[in-house]
Amino acid sequence: MRELASKRMRELASKRVSVQESARVSEQESMSVSEYKRLCLVKHESNYRYDVVGTNSNGSKDYGIFQMNSNYFCGRPSGTSSSTCWRVNTYGCADSCTSFTNSDISNDANCAVRVKNCGGFGKWYGWRNHCSNVQGSEYDYSTC
């Protein structure tokens, strides 16, 4: 019954996560409130949409609000839930890629935090191209 209710809620939910929800979930997953740059990343990777699937020139796909890449961070048979960097960098997260395209972004944020903690945001093109020099004030939604 819970699964049916959850499915119905996802059907009713908007495909876009609010900025406040993104900040709240990221904060719960151990990202400091002072790390406003993560909101810049989400803005430029998915425009705050959790249902986005992007195809790259090498055939890999990026999934969800953080655009987690199928070659590195999801859908891998030996994916890990560990925070140990060599495991995250070698095996990716223990999530199916499609699990990053539903309205529950907590697993997305958990994986993104572990990837970020093991090498920074530089693994994302949205970060490199738009966010690495952002001071953060335009992404400070702490008063919302």
Key phrases:
antimicrobial; hydrolase; Lysozyme; EC 3.2.1.17; bacteriolytic enzyme; single chain; mainly alpha
What does this structure look like?
A hairpin with a 4-residue loop joins strand 2 and strand 3 (68-69). The N and C termini lie far apart (34 Å). The protein has 144 residues and is mainly alpha-helical. The protein is built from 6 helices and 3 strands. It has one domain (2-139): Lysozyme (Orthogonal Bundle), CATH 1.10.530.10. The protein has a 3-stranded antiparallel sheet with strand order 1-2-3. It is an enzyme of class 3 (hydrolase). This is lysozyme.
Q: Compute the CA-based radius of gyration.
A: 15 Å
Proportion of helical residues: 25-40%
User: Runs with pLDDT <50, length 5+?
Assistant: 1-14, 30-34
| Number of discrete domains | 1
- Count the DSSP helices: 6
Oligomer: single chain
Instruction: Return the CATH topology.
Output: Lysozyme
How would the global form be characterised? globular
The level 1 CATH classification is Mainly Alpha
Could you spell the SSE succession in H and E letters? HHHEEEHHH
- Which class of secondary structure composition applies to the elements? mainly alpha
